[in-house]
Specification:
The complex is a heterodimer. By secondary structure, chain A is mostly helical. Chain A has 5 helices and no strands. Chain A has one domain. The longest helix of chain A is centred in the N-terminal third of the chain and has 31 residues. Chain A is flat, with a radius of gyration of 16 Å. Chain B folds into 2 domains: 209 residues; 121 residues, Rieske [2Fe-2S] iron-sulphur domain (Rieske Iron-sulfur Protein, 3-layer Sandwich), CATH 2.102.10. Chain B has 11 helices and 12 strands. In chain B, strand 3 and strand 4 form a beta hairpin. The longest helix of chain B is centred in the first third of the chain and has 29 residues. The mean pLDDT of chain B is 91. Chains A and B meet through helix 1, helix 2, helix 3 and helix 4 of A and helix 5 and helix 7 of B.
Chain lengths: 78, 349
């Protein structure tokens, strides 16, 4: 297997993980990381899908952080 | 600027802007196809499309990159800046057509994965005449792709303005890759020098515009204000500032906009929270300082965006002695209310 094939396979895996993440994130996480999402339409949700697939690791980090702040509200006001 | 996100915040100006982009693209592509059919009737449809989209994308790329320095040189170009991201996304769509058809035509007819073929079919990296220029175009396409998918304000907020701006500054690397992609490709496939000449004129024009605009910015920042007292710096005369407009001053490497509105002077940080637009080049609309780039607004007395918006910029103390405007470069926390300096009738005359 050539180096290029391995790199392409790794990128494909990353993007497949991004697609799976994006489906869950759009349903459950999006409104938790940014309150500007509340009241936004489907057009907005569709337009950010490619970005969610590519930058899913950063969004996951923000989502985890947002969940921790909800669990520990004292920390939020510290 | 919005409390909740919209896919596109349409308004009349944006619609006109987008229709003009669309009409130009259609007209250009149609003209290119017709002229090719007349002068080179043996070309295949794919070849015509690849060439038409490549030249159109190069033109739009030059226009897009010229808008920034042009607005620094002359404010009349500001309407072009307002919706520049749509121009960029349109360019990406055109480049995507070019890239897709190029990969289809040159790399998808064998039994090797087209993307593997793109990087392995030609490995003459040491040869100028045979350099694998397509790979350069591919990397430029990836940069334009990342820019296009993060063009919505959601990404500005969630990647952070610093990361977002850095990512979008890669457009200059992409431009370099495009220049090399075109030049090396033309060397291999073209005998007509017109492509190289057009590309060189475009590159020199862009470099010249950036140099002129950059020099002006540096000159603005290099003004030395000598008179100082109690932390305040004498910056100008009150008559130098137009009503509902501002003058920008660079003190201690900080750019500060001093606005004159409603019989008072207010000072706020010059950098808009949205895309670092120059607030000092905007004007007061409906009682709010309005960024000339995308219309983000801030109240002059506290640097806060009017509710329900949440952007904030730093504020500063400003005072008047006679007609002299004194500015304190010590920044207050973003959104801090300041009283401003009252302009008496005597000052204003």
């Amino acid at each position: 297997m050539s180096t290029m094939t391995v790199i392409l396979a790794a990128i494909s895996l990353y993007l497949v993980a991004g697609i799976i993440f994006t489906i869950i994130f759009q349903l459950k996480g999006l409104s938790k990381i940014d309150e500007g999402v509340n009241g936004s339409g489907w057009g907005f949700r569709i337009i950010i899908i490619p970005g969610c697939i590519v930058f899913w690791t950063g969004l996951l980090r923000k989502w985890i952080k947002a969940n921790k702040e909800i669990i520990d509200p004292a920390k939020e006001h510290a | 600027m919005g409390a909740s996100y919209l896919a596109v915040g349409w308004n009349r100006q944006k619609k006109i802007y987008d229709w003009l982009i669309f009409a130009f693209c259609v007209l250009y592509l149609a003209t290119f196809v017709v002229l090719t059919a007349i002068f080179n009737p043996d070309y295949t449809f794919e070849t015509v499309l690849i060439r038409a989209t490549s030249t159109l994308a190069v033109i739009i790329l030059h226009v897009t990159l010229s808008i920034g320095p042009l607005t620094r040189i002359n404010k009349k170009f500001l309407p072009l800046l307002y919706n520049r991201r749509h121009l960029g996304v349109s360019m990406f769509c055109i480049i995507l057509v070019h890239g897709s058809f190029s990969i289809l035509q040159f790399h998808s007819l064998g039994n090797v994965n087209p993307f593997v073929s793109l990087f392995t079919s030609n490995t003459h990296f040491g040869s100028l005449a045979d350099f694998p220029f397509q790979a350069l175009g591919f990397f430029a396409l990836i940069i334009f792709f990342l820019m296009a998918i993060t063009s919505h304000d959601f990404w500005l907020h969630n990647l952070s303005p610093k990361v977002w701006k850095t990512l979008h500054m890669f457009v200059y690397l992409a431009y370099f890759l495009v220049v090399m992609h075109v030049m090396l490709g033309v060397i291999q496939y073209e005998t007509n020098p017109v492509f190289i000449i057009i590309m060189l004129i475009g590159a020199f024009t862009l470099i010249a515009l950036h140099l002129i605009a950059g020099t002006r910015e540096v000159n603005k920042d290099d003004v030395i204000y000598k008179l100082k007292q109690d932390g305040y710096v004498l910056v100008c005369d009150v008559k130098d500032i137009e009503e509902d407009r501002a003058k920008m001053f660079c003190l201690d490497t900080e750019r500060i906009a001093v606005y004159k509105t409603g019989g008072k002077l207010f000072a706020v940080n010059n950098v808009c929270k949205h895309q670092n637009g120059p607030l000092g080049e905007g004007k007061v609309i409906d009682g709010c300082i309005t960024c000339p780039w995308h219309g983000y607004q801030y109240l002059p007395q506290n640097g806060q965006s009017p509710p329900p918006f949440k952007e904030k910029v730093s504020t500063y103390d400003v005072k008047l002695e006679g007609t002299h405007v004194w500015l304190n470069p010590k920044a207050y926390a973003e959104g801090t209310e300041r009283p401003g300096a009252v302009i008496s009738v005597v000052n204003a005359e």
